[in-house]
Amino acid sequence: MKESALEKARANYSPKMPSMLGGPVEAVEGEKTQSVANNEEIQSLFPNTYGMPVVKFIPSQASKPMPAINVGVILSGGQAPGGHNVIAGLFDGLKSLHADSRLYGFLGGPRGLIEHNYTELTSDIIDKYRNTGGFDIIRSGRDKLEHEKQFDAGLEILNQLNIKALVIIGGDDSNTNACLLAEYYKKKNTGIQVIGCPKTIDGDLKNAQIETSFGFDTACKVYSELIGNIERDCNSARKYWHFIKLMGRSASHIALECALQTQPNLCIISEEVQRNNSNLDNIVTEIADLVEERYNAGNRFGIILIPEGLIEFIPDFKVLISEINKLLGVPANAEQFNKLDKSERMSYIQGKLSPKSAQLYASLPASVAAQLILERDSHGNVQVSLIETEKLLSDLVRTNLAERNNPKLLEAFAPLHHFFGYEGRCAAPSNFDANYCYSLGYTASRLIAAGKTGYMASVTNTTAPASEWEAGGIPITMMMNMEYRNEGSKPVIRKALVELDGAPFLTFAKRREDWKKSTSYLYPGPIQYFGPAELCDRPTITLCLEQGKTLD
Ligand code: FBP
User: In a 10 Å sphere around its CB, with 0-12 CB exposed, 13-18 middle and 19+ buried, how is residue 162 labelled?
Assistant: First the structure.
């Protein structure tokens, strides 16, 4: 494998981690815990892993000798920068406990476990991937681990390889599956531990205990660099309106963080749209008003950020999407639907919707109507990354402007469309993510050594220098509640949406009116790895504001 100059330089970077992890640690247990909601249901579904205490590691005087242990690791779901460093941290952590410990990677996500596809990760392999982006070391996949048959198939290979612990690196859905697996293996007295690690660029796997998911930092910095570059082009040419859709699935964390980093003219926050009960027309009118206002001030250009999950938060669309989900969630309907061709599928859906949803569905451009009924992912989610909201909005803004009896205004409206998602998911991790991921992996090794199962590795105090970070473990059941998914009510980790009373949103809300009229673009430039600490190691603005820091 050939390495780029940057990869060679980054291979020599030693990730920073909590200084306490540099020596022996002991696990201190807190109080018994409860799930965030639906306590009784979650407890009855997870009788063996419910209520466990939060674990905090503290330095210990004596190191307890540990036997060599075999551990398995899975990368699950969408790629996020830093995944390789979680594996490197886990590997180094295990080797520090016993030099003969071994790490096996299951290939292509959870399917690798079920189908017994694996490789041993030796130091030669690990060294090639340190501080690199991507998940290519063992690849990822979106298969769902939820049936006992799958758990048993996994158990077979784990026993065969004498694996005593499995680390699942994934988002909310994958960690939910980690919890199901932990519960099942504990119930069956297999002695196999399951530990999760919080991954997702979306930033929605966070809560009172997990400060951020890895990958969010790097992805937002990459997108902000690109947005900044477009802003500069936009401010130079002064002739385009850029509609930029940003990945992030349901939550608008990425859009909000990028707005804080780049100060666009407008950034839609889905959670606010939902709170205000805004419909599509309200959003379109707000954009059209802005286009007109800036035109009247001599500015025929602008930048608009759109979170990819927006339409799921527009109340009318929410009802429409949930009707479609419920409809296709019935196996008989899905079977009939799958036999139809594209146009027949649209009429089939149209005929089964409530009158209000049918009317909305009929009013949509054919491309968007078709995108709304594309196959759901294996967790029953609409694949929002496939819906071209940025085009839908700009088309409707044009129609709105056309009704304003000002041909020159209409002529001056020249939209361009962008979607930033895949550009950031495999970027080389920022220093923050390189450090955070390595620390998470190392922490996972300590949770394994402490005999824990059903826990997520946690690294906290992350706006302080990495040496002061704290390490521990959070029972996964503590983050769970019951939610409706395509086959009914299910236990899942509660997704963190943007909090409208939280510091990141409030800071944005205080500044956004200025950004509309004046052109206050910020150009963050590329991720920096060397140089002053404030450029290299600084975490996201979201994380800083959430932890009580203020903007300069
Ligand atoms: P995870 O939740 O698995 O981390 O995936 C994040 C994400 O990048 C979303 O932002 C996006 O909507 C989705 O994955 C795209 O899915 P796919 O990788 O299957 O195209």
Answer: exposed
